[in-house]
Amino acid sequence: MPKNFQIIVVVFLLAVPSLAQQKRLWVLKPAGEMVEYDLTTFAAKQAVKVPPEAVKSAANVSVNRLGQILFAPAASLPLSDEDIASPHKIWFWNGHSATTLDAGVEHKVETVGSNQAVTEVAPSAFLSADGNHLFWFANQQRRLQRENVDLSVTTTLQAWQTDTSGGNRVDLATVKLPECRCTTGSCEESCPNGVVWVPQDGMVTFFLVNQIVSGQTEISYKASTLFQETAGKWSTIPLPQPLHRVLDAVSGADTVIVEAIPDNGCCGWSNQSNDQTLLHFSGRTLTVFDERATYKNADYDVSFYTSDAKLSPELGSIAMTITSTSGTNQPIQVSEQGVANPEESKQIRKAQADLPAVEVKKMEEPPRRVDFIPHAALVGWINEKELLIVEGHLLVGYNVATGARRKSNVKVEDTARVFLR
């Protein structure tokens, strides 16, 4: 996360009960270890040596509740010359020992008349919650080119699972998208590909796929599909509207999805539209964050948005990390269509003074703030009543009901290196 970003965490209380489960805490250390800590005492329990590359790329590290660890850097399509030439390996800790697996990146070129057909696939790997499988997702693209200019592309979305050694493949879903003409000469600018969302605890019985077009200046969101397993059979459920950025989701008798609507600012501007966060459940959509309504910042090029969100274990609460694109000591310029407004600028500065902060709101109409913790950042939910936060680069357990803190001596560089599962 850029240094000039600031964070707020917002929590809304819902009322959908389920059974809470004991969680585990891991921290990725700069020295190249994943260390597990006791969530009650914050004492170190065990350490696992990880590849040096993992320390530099925490976003590609995942952990499940069983303590399995996966470092799976994924190549993006179209493959670069470096991607084609380099080996692609996945590092997997099964809870006892480490293995290295081939990522399955492929690149093939063949002549088709006066054109070239380039077929590429770059799978992404994910942990399963049961610990017995790995889950894989890939866009397989076949691009027709002439003189290195893309003419058209046919994309097939593939999802499958294997055992933890990468063998015994079982296909879960295959969706072939219609052939797409690459109108700009670059397929990624005009044609959709799939982006998968898998629960952080590991894949169990559902995953989400968004079809997006990267575009030249902004992302377009085309369609979203819920893939769900029931009694051993997978079904596809098209969603009524395309999702933008999925922050969290759970699926059972009802599917609950938290979605962030990002700012469409481009070309050097960061605040050209209204950032929102929506909660979809039971056929309803509830707005749980609205930038413009909260910060009144339309005239200035400072954006506030949710960079993360976590549903609580019993689905009684939702915690959102709200990020600002400008720090308190940075100048604030008027937005592209804005008009200088001293009162608006003053309110923005006032809001930034407490950032990062944790805000707790009760789910009412309208939501009512019940707590506020300045200079803190969210990690996740320990249980239905307690959050794990970072204050002064230290992990802290925070009781939402009483405000009590359980302080630790566990230092962390940022929340991306903390895994609460």
Task: Give a short summary of the structure.
It contains five helices and 32 strands. With 421 residues, the protein is mainly beta.
Overview of this structure, please?
The chain has one domain (6-420): Methylamine Dehydrogenase, Chain H (7 Propeller), CATH 2.130.10. The protein is 7% helix and 49% strand. It is built from 5 helices and 32 strands. It has helices at residues 52-56, 81-85, 187-190, 291-295, 342-352, and strands at residues 6-13, 25-28, 33-37, 44-49, 61-63, 69-71, 89-93, 98-102, 106-112, 115-121, 124-127, 133-146, 149-163, 170-176, 180-181, 193-197, 206-213, 220-230, 233-238, 245-251, 255-261, 276-281, 284-290, 304-311, 317-324, 357-362, 368-374, 377-381, 386-391, 394-399, 405-411, 418-420. Strands 9, 10, 11, 12, 13, 14 and 15 form a 7-stranded antiparallel beta sheet that branches. Strands 24-25-1-26-27 form a 5-stranded mixed beta sheet, with no helix packed on it. The chain has a 4-stranded antiparallel beta sheet with strand order 4-3-2-32, with no helix packed on it. The chain is globular, with a radius of gyration of 22 Å. It starts with 5 loop residues before the first strand and ends with a strand.
Biggest β-sheet: count, sense, barrel?
Answer: 7 strands, antiparallel
**CATH top level assignment:** Mainly Beta
Give the averaged pLDDT, no decimals. 90
Which percent range describes the beta-strand content? over 45%
CATH topology type:
Methylamine Dehydrogenase, Chain H
Distance between the termini: 22 Å
- Could you list the spans in which at least 5 consecutive residues all have pLDDT below 50? 1-5, 15-20
- As for the number of domains, it is 1
